[in-house]
Amino acid sequence: MIQITRHAIKRYQERVMPSCSDLEAELRILEAATHGVLLSRKGKYRAVQHGKAVLIIYDDANISVVKTVETVNFSGFWKKKRRG
């Protein structure tokens, strides 16, 4: 099951598609969460990219919660170099 937070919808509208409605943003986030490419995983969080949007998803048991949406240019934990 996938849950999308209100914060994620707001960030999608703000950063990826400013002119879309709440419903359209929710549908596009759902599509990105199911068809996106896994960029990185850190603990229970994973970064999934679809187009120019990167979703930060928290996995807990059988529930995936989309916490926020970033752009590809954002330097999050999926771009950091590992030591060693």
Can you put this structure into words, describing what you see?
The structure is a single chain. The chain has 84 residues and is α+β, with helices and mostly antiparallel strands. It is 29% helix and 38% strand. Helix 1 crosses helix 2.
Characteristics:
single chain; 5 strands; 84 residues; five-stranded mixed β-sheet; globular; alpha+beta
Summarize the structure.
The chain is 29% helix and 38% strand. It has helices at 6-15, 22-35; strands spanning 2-4, 37-42, 45-50, 53-60, 63-71. The protein has a 5-stranded mixed beta sheet.
Could you outline the blueprint of secondary structure elements for this entry?
Layout lengths: L1 E3 L1 H10 L6 H14 L1 E6 L2 E6 L2 E8 L2 E9 L13
Helix pairs in contact: 1-2
